[in-house]
Amino acid sequence: MQPSIPVLALLAFALSACTAERAAPQDAATTPPQAEPLDQPVEDVPPATAPVGEPPATTAPGPTAATYQGYGQARFGMDADAVKQAWEGELAGIPGADSACYYLRPKQADGLGWPALMFADGRFVRYDVESAADVAPGGGQVGMTADDIEAAYAGRVEQRPHKYVEGGHNLRIKSTDGASAIVFEVDAAGKVTAWHVGVPPQVDYVEGCS
Known about the structure:
Keywords: Signal. This protein has helices spanning 5-23, 80-86, 146-152; strands at residues 66-67, 70-71, 74-75, 91-92, 101-106, 116-120, 123-129, 157-161, 169-174, 181-186, 192-198. By secondary structure, it is α+β, with helices and mostly antiparallel strands.
């Protein structure tokens, strides 16, 4: 005997309800909570600190090229060939046939502090500077005042009248060993216009090699 349609429908409903009950997730109360990642550790941890580094080493300023002994690797007393080998770059200048005194100048001389190198009797004896780009031994520069020079070389400055500049004068400072000296040329307004370093007697020549 075939079951009636209502009975079949009832069986189908019961079967679907049973399947749905099996597929349904367990009650949330019975499901163990998932552990969430912790942003911070449970225990108190002192804040991280960056390692303290050593303080930066104080870098002493490099020595100026101008010294009481010469300029750069060119030292007073060297002959012209030795100076040309020591010089970084090419030096130009040729002594006259009867000239015991002459200058060599860097070919790249452009007013940026390159000195003119004086030679007497074949030896390097002096260098002349007319630019504020170079610094004399002890800190003097073109553009400073006479008072600045007096302060920088306190107790060591010998003042002499300038031979050609009315109201001007020269400030002469000897090296500690007395072997050489700086001469700053100061105009009537009290400003340094040029300076040179050299050994006697050439350091005191007023007109260079003239």
